[in-house]
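Regression test case RT-17, inverse folding.

Input:
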């Protein structure tokens, strides 16, 4: 969930999609672990909804308290296990050595809560490998306990993490026939015959599987982006598709954004330059007739860090300024960019902010002219959709959701009024330069044409409305199975 402590795009999706579904008249409830690092000040009316929920675990049971509250209007249930394992009292969401056990328990506990609290949703919508066991447990165990009408939609946000583990997790969750589940048609990993794959289980057992953009759905099925699951997706292609994520325009909208000094829209884009001046003042950049190129997001290999670094120096060489906000979970990458920050500390055309600051991120989107996003792969991407809304022209690599949202000014087959950025295809410096040079060159040489390109981006609709309808169509299809 976004107001608590969200995990990247997944939190955005759960929040945005649930609100869209409620606006369309559906009852939506969200089940989450009760992490100790939640922003409890943003949960309204937190109270105990179920005092003692025993969850079968190995040969015994772990007792849980189930809490309930509202997060920005969404009803949420928080599962709080009382166990010496301290599953969710880690001061972080992911990254523990026993993550598989933590989230296998969460999957089991969520279904046990639905069963004991007599909740029978038409559709259970679960996400990523962490909940891959939900459809397995539902159809292998809970269907026989009275949950025979429930259906599962399973959304995979990133195929890079699949929950590959050993047999013990089957025994822990009550799936006590390992010979049944160690089958290539069920949970056995396609390449490690001694392991089970929780994401594969989610694909096999779900009624429908989605990923977060049509292009990424194609990539994971027909290229190595499926990380070993392409064959499984082929077998289940009749129930697999890509639904492009939406963007929460209640949060990311320059017409109502509380974090920027000058709000603006399509009819008042000139106000964008007031934000540019404020951004320069805040970051102590020079006031010159130059475009600002920015990068906003994580610094990891998926995002093409070598190309981000090259974009910085190339932009400076081409008469632009460069602003970056982000940090890396990888200590070596973090150290590399801290070195860059110190190296460029006195440069009036460059600023690197090595931690996330929400207000500054909003100001960067509002004040920059060009966003660079040279991802090696990108299931959906939110930064480019935010940039489009803020009239910041994206320069992106042609992968995943970037293909579905950014259309090259010079080479796209789209109508001129739909072209909204610059696209490159390879992962080398020359490819990046070819696109970035066109963007910076257009800003310098033809400012009116650059402005028209920015306006094209602002007119695009990437709200949750189209995705909400797509998911309702999917839910309707699987309810009748």
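Golden output:
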């Amino acid at each position: 969930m976004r107001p608590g402590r969200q995990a990247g795009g997944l939190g955005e999706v759960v929040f945005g999609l649930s609100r869209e579904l409620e606006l369309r008249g559906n009852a939506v409830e969200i089940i989450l672990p009760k992490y100790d690092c939640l922003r409890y000040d943003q949960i309204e009316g937190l109270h105990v909804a179920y005092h003692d929920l025993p969850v079968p675990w190995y040969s015994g049971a772990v007792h849980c308290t189930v809490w309930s509250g509202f997060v920005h209007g969404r009803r949420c249930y928080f599962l709080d296990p009382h166990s010496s394992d301290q599953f969710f009292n880690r001061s972080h969401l992911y990254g523990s050595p026993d993550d598989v056990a933590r989230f296998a328990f969460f999957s089991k506990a969520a279904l046990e809560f639905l069963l004991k609290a007599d909740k029978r949703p038409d559709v259970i919508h679960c996400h990523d490998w962490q909940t891959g066991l939900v459809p397995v447990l539902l159809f292998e165990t809970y269907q026989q306990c009275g949950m025979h009408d429930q259906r599962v939609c399973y959304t995979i946000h990133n195929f890079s993490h699949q929950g590959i583990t050993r047999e013990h997790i089957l025994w822990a969750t009550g799936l006590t026939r390992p010979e049944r589940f160690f089958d290539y048609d069920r949970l056995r990993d396609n390449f490690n015959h001694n392991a089970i794959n929780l994401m594969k289980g989610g694909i096999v057992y779900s009624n429908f599987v989605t990923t977060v953009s049509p292009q990424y759905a194609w990539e994971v099925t027909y290229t190595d982006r499926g990380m070993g699951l392409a064959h499984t997706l082929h077998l289940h292609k009749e129930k697999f598709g890509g639904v492009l994520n939406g963007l929460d325009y209640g949060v990311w909208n320059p017409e109502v954004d509380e974090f920027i000094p000058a709000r603006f829209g399509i009819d008042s884009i000139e106000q964008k330059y007031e934000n540019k001046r404020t951004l320069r003042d805040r970051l102590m950049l020079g006031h010159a007739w130059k475009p600002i190129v920015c990068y906003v997001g994580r610094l990891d290999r998926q995002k093409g860090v070598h190309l981000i670094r090259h974009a910085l120096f190339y932009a400076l060489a081409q008469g632009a300024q460069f602003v970056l906000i982000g940090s890396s979970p990888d200590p070596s990458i973090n150290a590399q960019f801290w070195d860059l920050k110190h190296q460029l500390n006195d440069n009036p055309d460059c600023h690197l902010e090595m931690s996330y600051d929400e207000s500054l991120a909003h100001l960067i989107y509002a004040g920059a002219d060009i966003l660079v996003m040279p991802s090696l792969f990108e299931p959906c991407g939110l930064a480019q959709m935010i940039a489009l809304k803020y009239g910041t022209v994206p320069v992106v690599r042609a992968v995943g959701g970037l293909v579905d949202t950014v259309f090259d000014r010079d080479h796209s087959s789209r109508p001129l009024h739909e072209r909204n950025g610059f696209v490159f295809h390879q992962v080398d410096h020359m490819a990046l330069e070819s696109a970035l040079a066109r963007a910076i060159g257009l800003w310098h040489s033809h400012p009116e044409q650059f402005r028209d390109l920015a306006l094209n981006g602002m007119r695009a609709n990437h709200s949750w409305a189209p995705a909400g309808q797509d998911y309702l169509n999917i839910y309707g299809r699987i309810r009748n199975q």
